[in-house]
């Protein structure tokens, strides 16, 4: 059983940044409006995420660490209409099988916090702390040295973690995020709106040369900002696309945006953008592999056309 857990964990938590992603999604699902991510040694030594969300009642803490325990899906029908980010109920259990996990949590009406360390078999004990949840993940892969060997340098692993924080922070400008590494504050973004958050994260050059997009057609809506070529830091990872609030890297979407830029600007540079597509959840399949960020559209031609034309029209306005 322990072995099966560790193999499954490899799928969910292939590196520190995957742990950061799962914990951030949980914090957001819990309604946190202030989230702090503390990392040590690229996240391998320690990943500690604190939120001010609704908390976990003490009697549910063991369940939170047990496999296939999710509080987010009540029936199979819910799978079609997933609004929360996590719904498989295996992230915390997987992480706990390859690291030392401590949950500390306090609900709004509780007199004090409670904590649970190790696994669902541990004992829930009184603790202290403000309402919300802290998940502390210590010594990732301490018991699976083979997996630990695949990790890159501390700076590389930290870079992946920081990128996950940026992706999520861009999707949720209404939430305050703080990121520290080895005790130093690296990022601190106060809750604001998409215009400000994207300027904070992509930089002033982007903020000064970008076009706002907000177009809707039927069940599809595309909104966000498309940078003009002068705004490009020519960094490939400054292209952020979201589908129903999730960061995705999808061939159809990337192609549609690229084609629109080529059509209007004829440039060989491919500028930065932050774009969010919203559509009926029934028209897109997000229930893919845990560590992947791909989606499948029911009608990818229609999505491609819509995104292409929306970006093309926005860009054409400025070059006219
Ligand atoms: P999932 O998110 O797929 O439900 P997880 O293993 O990520 O599964 O989390 C298990 C459960 O633990 C969640 O369903 C939720 O009830 C609880 N939980 C985890 N993190 C938090 C948090 N930060 N705040 C409140 N509840 C949490
Ligand atoms: Mg989750």
Describe the protein.
Helices cover 34% and strands 25% of the residues. It has 320 residues and is of the alpha+beta class. A hairpin with a 7-residue loop joins strand 4 (113-117) and strand 5 (125-127). Helix 6 packs antiparallel against helix 7 (194-202). The longest helix has 20 residues, at 300-319. It starts with a helix and ends with a helix. Residues 79-83 have low confidence and may be disordered. It binds adenosine-5'-diphosphate (ADP) and magnesium ion. Magnesium ion (MG) binds at residues 22, 25-26, 86, 91.
Share of residues in strands:
25-35%
Number of DSSP helical runs: 10
Strand order of the largest sheet: 5-4-3-6-2-1-7-8
Indicate the mean pLDDT.
88
N- to C-terminal distance: 64 Å
The molecules bound to the chains, other than polymers, are:
adenosine-5'-diphosphate, magnesium ion
Helical amount? 25-40%
Largest sheet: 8 strands, mixed
Oligomer: single chain
Which regions are unreliable across 5 or more consecutive residues at pLDDT < 50? 79-83
Structural class: alpha+beta
Give the topology string: H per helix, E per strand: HHEEHHEEEEHHEEHHEEEEHEEEH
Rg over CA atoms, rounded to whole Å, is: 20 Å
Count the strands?
15
Rough outline? elongated
Keywords: DNA damage, DNA repair, Endonuclease, Hydrolase, Nuclease
Family: Belongs to the DNA mismatch repair MutL/HexB family.
GO biological process, one term: mismatch repair
GO molecular function, one term: ATP-dependent DNA damage sensor activity
């Amino acid at each position: 059983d322990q072995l099966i857990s560790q193999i499954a964990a490899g799928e969910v938590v292939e590196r520190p940044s995957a742990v950061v992603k799962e914990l951030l999604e949980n914090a957001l699902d819990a309604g946190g409006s202030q989230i702090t991510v503390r990392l040590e040694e690229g996240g391998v030594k320690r990943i500690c995420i604190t939120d001010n969300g609704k908390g976990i009642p003490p009697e549910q803490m063991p369940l939170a660490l047990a496999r296939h325990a999710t509080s987010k899906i009540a029936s199979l029908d819910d799978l079609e209409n997933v609004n929360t980010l996590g719904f498989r109920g295996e992230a915390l259990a997987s992480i706990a099988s390859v690291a030392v996990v401590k949950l500390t949590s306090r609900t709004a009406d509780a007199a004090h916090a409670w904590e649970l360390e190790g696994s669902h078999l541990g004992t829930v004990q009184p603790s202290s702390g403000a309402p919300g949840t802290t998940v502390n993940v210590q010594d990732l892969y301490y018991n699976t040295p083979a997996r630990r060997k695949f990790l890159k340098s501390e700076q590389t692993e930290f870079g992946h973690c920081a990128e996950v924080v940026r992706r999520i922070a861009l999707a949720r400008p209404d939430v305050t995020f703080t990121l520290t590494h080895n005790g130093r504050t690296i990022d601190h973004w106060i809750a604001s709106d998409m215009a400000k958050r994207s300027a904070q994260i992509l930089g002033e050059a982007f903020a000064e040369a970008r076009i706002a997009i907000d177009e809707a057609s039927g069940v599809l809506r595309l909104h966000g900002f498309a940078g003009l070529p002068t705004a490009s830091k020519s960094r490939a990872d400054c292209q952020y696309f979201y589908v129903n609030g999730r960061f995705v890297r999808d061939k159809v979407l990337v192609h549609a945006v690229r084609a629109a830029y080529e059509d209007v600007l004829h440039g060989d540079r491919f500028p930065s953008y932050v774009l969010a597509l919203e559509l009926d959840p029934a028209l897109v399949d997000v229930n893919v592999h845990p560590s992947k960020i791909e989606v499948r559209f029911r009608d990818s031609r229609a999505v491609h056309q819509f995104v292409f034309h929306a970006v093309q029209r926005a860009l054409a306005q400025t070059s006219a």
